[in-house]
Design goal:
GO cellular component, one term: membrane
Keywords: Fatty acid biosynthesis, Fatty acid metabolism, Lipid biosynthesis, Lipid metabolism, Phosphopantetheine, Phosphoprotein
Number of helices: 4
Pfam families: PP-binding
Order of helices and strands: HHHH
Strand content: under 5%
Shape: globular
Oligomer: single chain
Largest sheet: none
Protein name: Acyl carrier protein
GO biological process, one term: lipid A biosynthetic process
Number of domains: 1
Distance between the termini: 19 Å
Radius of gyration: 12 Å
Helix content: 40-55%
CATH superfamily: ACP-like
CATH class: Mainly Alpha
CATH topology: Non-ribosomal Peptide Synthetase Peptidyl Carrier Protein, Chain A
Length: about 80
């Protein structure tokens, strides 16, 4: 399973809105489109860190708004470890 699919599955587990795989777009906002609240967003970040064995910097988190941004960020971190 690739990075995008793993993150997709983690987002679905934390999201208040249950979306079909074909419905989630890179441009979807993590909070407004995917229904992640502040607590579920923190839980998602922790799950991603555990799943990919990476550390996500708090300053970087503040710059990640869209699903595609999150996928790109994690992909870069995974490729550079």
């Amino acid at each position: 399973m690739n990075v995008k699919n793993k993150i997709y599955n983690l987002v679905i587990l934390k999201s208040k809105i249950k979306k079909e795989k074909t419905d989630m777009k890179d441009s979807d906002d993590l909070i407004y489109d995917l229904g992640l609240g502040s607590l579920s967003l923190v839980e998602l970040i922790v799950d991603i860190e555990c799943e990919f064995d990476i550390e996500i910097d708090e300053d970087d988190i503040e710059q990640i708004y869209k699903f595609g941004d999150l996928v790109n960020y994690v992909t870069e971190k995974v490729n550079f470890r």
